[in-house]
Structures are given as structure tokens and as C-alpha cells.
Design goal:
The chain is built from three helices and eight strands; from the N terminus they run ββαβββββαβα. It is an alpha+beta fold. α2 packs parallel to α3. The protein is globular.
Length: 154
């Protein structure tokens, strides 16, 4: 992963992500920000929009960004341990699209960590994607999710 981009103004490299100055909350505007990661030929982007206390994320990337999936995650107590947070997630996929796994991962983790309603919509299309690149995309989505949580959890 070569870079993490904030709102076109601030680029933090992977080395900075491991330092104590990682992704400080004061870098996030009140309602909207964009983060992106690039590895090789693949870029994945998350546009965050605060909607009241909730969060709407547009997840896109690759050669042809699109809407292939929408997820809605609602915070609830864990069924196994009522003292822990969890989430119920609904997924709506466009027929033939496989974006649901990435969107569900992001939606559910954000909802659980933030304890807010979260919607993730979007799609990532990489022409002639190879199996190892699918894994790379999922790792990029995980890194973006971690960064969002770090930014928004106080």
C-alpha cells in the first residue's frame, strides 16, 4: 500500500500509519472526507459523509467504479455477550456483482466500532483481476476501515 490520501490535501505514507501521529481526528472535516489507498494498479477509495450521527460511505475503485452493492448495518448488543457491541447487516447486491463482501466487511466493522447506523454503497471493478489482486483489494478495504475507525473513534 503506497499512500493514504485525505481530502486531496494530505498524503500519509505507510510508514506514517505505524507512528503515533496516525490519522488524527482533527484532520477530518465535520461532514465529509475522502480516503484512498493505492497498491500497484489498484486504487480503492472511501468517501465518508456524516449524516447526523450516522455514516454513509461510498466505496469505489479500480478501472470502473460503480454501484454494485448497498449495505445497511445497525448497531445492537452482541447475541453472545450483551456487554459487547455487534451489528445486523442487510445487503442488496446488483445481480452478478461481487462487491458485497467488501462492503459488508466495512459496514459491519464500522457500525460495531462506532455504534452508529452505517450505509456502505459502491463497487470496485478491476479489469482482468487476478486472484492475488482480489486478496489485495480486501486488504485495502480492511486498511481503509481501520483508518476510518481510528479517525472517528474518540
Amino acid at each position: 500500500i503506497k499512500s493514504l490520501k485525505f481530502c486531496e490535501n494530505c498524503i500519509m505514507n505507510e510508514q506514517n500509519l505505524t507512528e503515533s501521529t496516525r490519522l488524527r481526528p482533527e484532520l477530518v472535516p465535520d461532514t465529509h472526507t475522502t480516503l484512498s489507498l493505492t497498491t500497484g494498479r489498484i486504487t480503492v477509495q472511501a468517501e465518508l459523509l456524516k449524516v447526523g450521527d450516522d455514516l454513509n460511505v461510498a466505496l469505489s475503485g479500480g478501472d470502473m467504479p460503480h454501484i454494485g452493492c448497498v449495505t445497511l448495518s445497525i448497531s445492537r448488543p452482541s447475541l453472545a455477550d450483551a456487554g459487547k457491541a455487534s451489528a445486523t447487516t442487510s445487503i442488496l447486491n446488483v445481480t452478478g456483482h461481487k462487491d458485497g463482501e467488501a462492503a459488508q466487511h466495512m459496514s459491519q466493522r464500522l457500525c460495531t466500532a462506532l455504534q452508529k447506523t452505517v450505509v456502505v454503497c459502491g463497487g470496485i471493478h478491476v479489469e482482468a483481476i487476478q486472484p492475488e489482486e482480489i486478496q489485495t483489494v480486501m486488504e485495502m478495504v480492511q486498511r481503509l476501515t481501520d483508518a476510518i475507525i481510528e479517525i472517528l473513534v474518540e
